[in-house]
Design goal:
This protein is α+β, with helices and mostly antiparallel strands. The protein has one domain (3-68). The protein has helices at residues 3-27, 58-68; strands spanning 39-43, 51-55. The protein has a two-stranded antiparallel sheet with strand order 1-2. Strand 1 and strand 2 (51-55) form a beta hairpin. The longest helix has 25 residues, at 3-27. It starts with a helix and ends with a helix.
Length: 69
């Protein structure tokens, strides 16, 4: 395997782990009043452009932020 392909494969694996961890960490948050879950949108294909957008009530966004620390 060529070094550049190894680097790409390692970066892709790290990206997937980080993405999955973030989704697990906030995906099961609930709005304290309605019980609604956040709407998550994951964009980007690499670590340097990974973005997770969260939609929900202000209370739910506050809970997501708390979970992310």
């Amino acid at each position: 395997m060529r070094p550049d392909r190894l680097t790409d494969a390692l970066e892709q694996a790290m990206y997937e782990k980080v993405r999955d961890h973030l989704v697990r960490q906030v995906g099961n948050a609930r709005d304290p009043k309605t019980g609604a879950r956040p709407k998550l949108r994951v964009t980007g294909r690499r670590l340097d452009d990974l973005k997770i957008e969260v939609e929900g009530s202000p209370e739910l966004i506050k809970e997501v932020k708390r979970r992310l620390g």
